[in-house]
Amino acid sequence: MQRHGGYVLVDTLIRHGVTHVFGMPGGQANAFYDALSQRKEDITHILIRDETTAGFAADSFSRVTNRIGVCDATVGPGATKFPSGLMEAFNSSVPILVIVSDHPQNSVLLQQYGRISQGGNQLEMLKPFTKETFNVPSIEMLSKVVSAAIHTAVSGRPGPVVVQIPQDVFQATTKLEPLFGTSNHPKFRCSAPESEIAKAVRLLRSAKRPIILAGGGVQLSQAYNEISELSDNYKIPVVTTLTGKGSIAETNDLCLGVLGELGSPCAKIVADQADVILAIGYKHSQNSSYRWTWPRVDQDLIHIDIDPAEFGRVITADIALWGDAREVLKQILAELNGSNFETSTEWLNVVKVEKEKWLQTRTEECSSKNNPIWPQAAVQAIVDQLGENDFVTCDAGFSSGWAGCFLELKRQGRQIILPRGAAGLGSSLPFALGVAMARPGSRIVAISGDGAFSYNVGELATLKQLNLPIINVVFNNAVLSWSKWTQQLNFDRNNLSVELGSYEFGTIAESYGIVGENVRNIEDLGPILKRELAANRPSVINVYTDEWQAPTLPYREAMNKAKQGTVGSQAAY
User: Which of 36, 315, 443, 476 has the greatest CB tally within 10 Å of its CB?
Assistant: First the structure.
């Protein structure tokens, strides 16, 4: 039977396990939407209000399901909205498939300077933020190219790919059967050489003060059982990166929370004293390494990663273990089996003391009754109402710091999504949309600042239309916090273009037909959250917060010095 390119594309996606596509239609891709309308039982298209949302939603969908996320947009101005989401996915090693339509191939000479409406070299624009870009030259190659693109995205170090499909390919017909495949990741799991495993275990057993650093690769590999077994059996403390948050339950006595400038002081103190570091799925990024000052040269580093290019890219590991995190940890556990290795009591006492100090400080801050509301206290109100199966999504800026440092995860697994790959504003609500599609019926709290929430307030229409149980908690301090703090600490307190003005986002939400609240007293927040979590509906809770509270360690330290009159110029973290 002859089928047009839209049917070939849709059937190829279905045969690779794709269930959802986030996007917005355009004339060049009408054949795609024709096919989607005929296969609603097998694949769902989610209409968003801005194509930027589609990229972030596909990203979070992939993180939660461990299947490729898919998004689409029309040629030109639709495609130009994708770089933000692509950059986040690329830097966070998340596999997404971006489908962009294009003009008919015989119009290629008309694309320069807008001779043909919306025309431009969109693949070259998207290429820097992808593992690979693909153009489909013919209907006969359509299924093969899409299948190859999915394979590329989920193999090795995962990442985003782009497939461009010209209008004439969409409208052409063929009798060829679409290909089958898988969009699950990791697609392949490889082990490290046994000789290197033996070296790593010998170094680990010689450690007096070992520590495990869990990066985002632990989540991508789903190495939860293995990291718990290694930590619990051998009493090795664990710190995580922001993307690794949730690798083990943060209520575990051995978990010290997030390491980095948006993390806990106790994680830094313990990590600084470690003699052997087992880093898993970790790319030695700016935040978690305190601007590449950690690990120090006198600390031994065992590094596990699926990407061999990561070894030595920034820091040279003493032992590099190339392989899938879960498989390599299994090898380490097998090599350790039967040994009498266990962390010393002295080291565990250090861990206990430092964690207790931080918990006391955190409890004091989170118990604040101040007005304006302290963000720490607002986060605690969220924690108090969260169930074990609820999800949290965060925006960039201070939102990631408040959640990363003060939001304690009670269970192990992917329960929180933070945008650390690119750290661009405007991701919390789109992330929540992706989670809602990945886990139907789940309750989701999306945390953002007022600056970030302003980026995609229009997506409230999407939440209303789909009636998704997403609670948007907006920390509203009327400023761009990160920028204002940087200007304050570096340029003699001269501020420009950081004052946003204060807006009632709860009232704005009501204009979209969803529940909105404007909260000025911390005592009111808990009951409102409890009510909305029980209601299973979209809502916006606008919380008026104190602009002079900061989650970043450098800013907190600088502000303490400022109060003492000793502050100097600070790096713009």
Answer: 476
